[in-house]
Amino acid sequence: xxxxxxxxxxxxxxxxxxxxxxxxxxxxxxxxxxxxxxxxxxxxxxxxxxxxxxxxxxxxxxxxxxxxxxxxxxxxxxxxxxxxxxxxxxxxxxxxx
Length: 97
Known about the structure:
It is a single chain. This protein is α+β, with helices and mostly antiparallel strands. Helix content is 36%, strand content 28%. It has 2 helices and 4 strands, in the order αββββα. It has helices at 2-12, 73-96, and strands at residues 20-22, 31-38, 41-48, 56-63. The chain has a 4-stranded antiparallel beta sheet with strand order 1-2-3-4.
C-alpha cells in the first residue's frame, strides 16, 4: 500500500499527494480520500487535515461493493462519527495548552 502511505506522509508534511481527492458529502477539502488497487482489490483510506498540525485517519477499508464507486452508507456514517471524535480530541488538546 505504497500510495496510501505516501499520501499520509505528505499530509503530515502539510502537502497533498496528487492521488488524493476530497470525499464527497463532507463539504470542501477537509476530509480527503486516497484510493489504491492492490492484488485485484480496491482499498480506501479517509483522513482529515481540518485541524492545524494534525492528521486524523478516520477510516481505512477494502471497497467491497460491486455496484459503482459510491462509498457505502455504513462507511460514511463511521467516518462522520470518527470525524466528530477527532473534533472533540482536537478541542481537548487545545484546552490543555
